[in-house]
């Protein structure tokens, strides 16, 4: 599997850890099966990474529970939202990611015997290329409001690729569409805990690129209204304050953003 898939396995292992907690913030029915199916060793998560991932996952879950009837998950990875969230029966959820990753995921799904709670449509693409034709061919309707998710994606894209992705999403979004994404402030590069995590990611062959400090500026120019949340405040809101050993400034460097187009 390619390097980005190794990071997907790493994230799945942290979701499996969360699912085993009695006070879990989410319950991923595929995570343990993904870990068991992995052919290579999955590196252990640095201290605090699993707690961070649980908060981030819950943020996107909450965003999607009140979503449009058309959902596009960019770089869907090995997450199981199509199977674990309480979707309305008419929701169509498009999962976009690399072909080999989605093929591995479908093998795990078949082995686990789980059934999607919505209409799940798999679209094998490389998001650095032009993926709009493949999405349209899969049944995406550009005239319908869409809920877009880019979880843990923008950090791995170059500035030109990020701009291209944003322009594409804006061009495909009908009035009433919504978009959730995250990024890390450039200040995170100065935090020891963040540097350790980034070194772990890079050791798996994936290049992490810190994003700009003004997430709202990316989208407000395109007519979106943007709200920004931070990990420590969300942790308190979810009843899971961050452990004392976590660096509050490092955790606060991650921006979790929601954007909306007027209906």
UniProtKB/TrEMBL annotation:
Belongs to the UPF0677 family. Its EC number is 2.1.1.-. One of its GO terms (biological process) is methylation. GO terms for molecular function: methyltransferase activity. This is S-adenosyl-L-methionine-dependent methyltransferase. Keywords: Methyltransferase, S-adenosyl-L-methionine, Transferase. Exhibits S-adenosyl-L-methionine-dependent methyltransferase activity. It comes from the Bacteria. Pfam families: LCM. NCBIfam families: mthyl_TIGR00027.
